[in-house]
Please model this.
Amino acid sequence: MTQQPTPPAVASVFAPDGALRASINLGNPILAHRDPASGEPAGVSVDLAREFGRRLGVPVELVAFERAALSVDAVRAERADIGFFAVDPARGEGLRFTAPYVLIEGSYLVPERATVTENDQVDREGTRISVGAGSAYDLFLTREIRHAEVVRLEGAPRALAALRAGEVEVAAGIRQLLEAEAAREAGVRVLPGRFMVIQQAMGVPAGRGAAAQELLASFVEEMKADGFVADALKRHGVEGASVASAQEISVEAG
Model:
């Protein structure tokens, strides 16, 4: 694997206190989770954080959050130096994203008895869609849904529980999680296809400057090209997610 030297000045911008604080979103278990044995964060995003810290020549401190919105806020407020988020225009203020490194599908879960069979049938009057508050699919549906009601709840487990309890007609989420929920217990099914593609990228506080942003962007491209991301997905048993191509463009709002 090719390694490019990191200028000490740039390394100090990323880790001004001597350690790289990486914000880890445990609310997306496709990319991060707690190790059953140690209780420490593990997963694809953790592997990337540790590799980036190694290249900077600094130790890595993992700052874990249960929800994406909290993880985003930590980086935006510079309580963390880097983070791993879904790219979305609503998250652009105070952050700079790299191009995505992984693509994940967003899908719908419905009761088995529901008459809905296609994604484009969900946005109707009288339909309630549960989502994890502040998630990528919450932000997307907030912009796109015109007739149904988006019901924001604390995390994906609560959103799925709301569907089983009959509090909503549809639950939105990461396809792999919805498929696992459908396999866990009868009574629900995943609609075919997807309503969005979630672009998972790395992010840095906007105030860290252009050199830091460029270094992080280059790191992500190298991790994709060298097979690091693909190997991490395989190592952690992640299915249904794909490495983003070099042509994928990130959203960078001011």
